[in-house]
């Protein structure tokens, strides 16, 4: 026996108890990751031109604060970026900005960008207005000419909102804050 025999790793075959122990730990770890991803915070890549210039068309990695189904959504404000299940393609999530809350009156297409999409457009251009029904929100992309949003499919149910986008990871890491601000219009002038 040499003086370094104790430095050699000793390998043994795992017992059924070892397999059971580590298998249980792996399942628990996967379960914890699933709960965090679906109920706490999720990391997603948002791809497409609808949110230019806020998010890149080639893809932007963002963090999404998830809402548990029973608490959906606690504090949405006009201008918040949200992740929602697409009403057109339910297998996809979309990232859009909240433009109208329940009870708000919104202009369907203020810039006339939706012409030809066969959605809510009726030739009225920026003159058509809609009251957002209770339990729904009106969403739109920042790049209205490249976005399929509430102008095409109408207000979306709050049940489709999956969470609020709050942080951009890549590129240009930083918080994604509400970009819309209320105008202070003084009628005295």
TrEMBL record:
Coiled coil: none annotated. The active site is at 50, 96. Its EC number is 3.4.21.-. It is found in: Mitochondrion inner membrane. Residues 22-109, 129-168 form the Peptidase S26 domain. PROSITE patterns: SPASE_I_2, SPASE_I_3. One of its GO terms (cellular component) is mitochondrial inner membrane peptidase complex. Belongs to the peptidase S26 family. IMP1 subfamily. This is Mitochondrial inner membrane protease subunit. It comes from Calocera cornea HHB12733.
């Amino acid at each position: 026996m040499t003086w370094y025999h104790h430095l050699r790793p000793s390998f043994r075959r795992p017992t059924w108890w070892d397999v059971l122990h580590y298998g249980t730990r792996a399942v628990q770890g996967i379960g914890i990751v699933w709960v965090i991803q679906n109920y706490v915070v999720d990391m997603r890549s948002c791809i497409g031109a609808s949110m230019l210039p806020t998010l890149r068309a080639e893809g932007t990695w963002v963090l999404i604060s998830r809402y548990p189904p029973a608490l959906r959504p606690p504090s949405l404000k006009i201008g918040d970026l949200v992740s929602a299940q697409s009403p057109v393609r339910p297998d996809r999530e979309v990232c859009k900005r909240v433009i109208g809350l329940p009870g708000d009156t919104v202009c369907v297409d203020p810039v006339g960008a939706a012409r030809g999409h066969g959605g809510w457009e009726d030739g009225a251009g920026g003159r058509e207005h809609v009251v957002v029904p209770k339990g729904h929100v009106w969403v739109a992309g920042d790049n209205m000419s490249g976005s399929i949003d509430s102008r095409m499919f109408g207000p979306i149910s709050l049940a489709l909102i999956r969470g609020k986008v709050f942080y951009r990871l890549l590129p240009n890491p930083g918080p994604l804050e509400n970009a819309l601000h209320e105008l202070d219009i003084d009628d005295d002038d």
